[in-house]
Amino acid sequence: FDPRHYLRTHRHGFPKTGPHRLRFLLESVKDLRETLKKKGSTLVVRKGKPEDVVRDLITQLGSVSTVVFHEEVREIL
């Protein structure tokens, strides 16, 4: 979870993620973790800036050959 997603918007001061969306995200992550657990896998969940969290995970794991992720598309004005 990137803390920057829970700040207020620059233009209008609205929350980027409101309480209903946050609840949905948390429930979805919990459900995904439970589903993966039933299949013998797991889900790593971290809070922090992705550029820091991914680097730290790679360092912890040691033998990472590939990292795949996506960047959220931002509106260009």
From TrEMBL:
Q: Which InterPro entries match?
A: Crypto/Photolyase_N_sf (IPR036155), Cryptochrome/DNA_photolyase_1 (IPR002081), DNA_photolyase_N (IPR006050), Rossmann-like_a/b/a_fold (IPR014729)
Cross-referenced PROSITE patterns, in alphabetical order?
Answer: PHR_CRY_ALPHA_BETA
Q: Record keywords: Repeat included? A: no
A molecular function (GO) term: FAD binding
Database matches in SUPFAM superfamilies: Cryptochrome/photolyase, N-terminal domain
Q: Does the keyword Nucleotidyltransferase apply?
A: no
Q: Which GO terms describe its biological process?
A: photoreactive repair
Domain Photolyase/cryptochrome alpha/beta, first and last residues per copy: 1-77
Query: What are the record keywords, sorted?
Result: Chromophore
A Pfam family for this UniProt protein?
DNA_photolyase
For this protein, the record's PANTHER family field holds: CRYPTOCHROME, CRYPTOCHROME DASH
What is the protein name given in its UniProt record?
CRYD protein
What's the source species for this entry? Edolisoma coerulescens
Gene giving rise to this polypeptide: Crydash_0
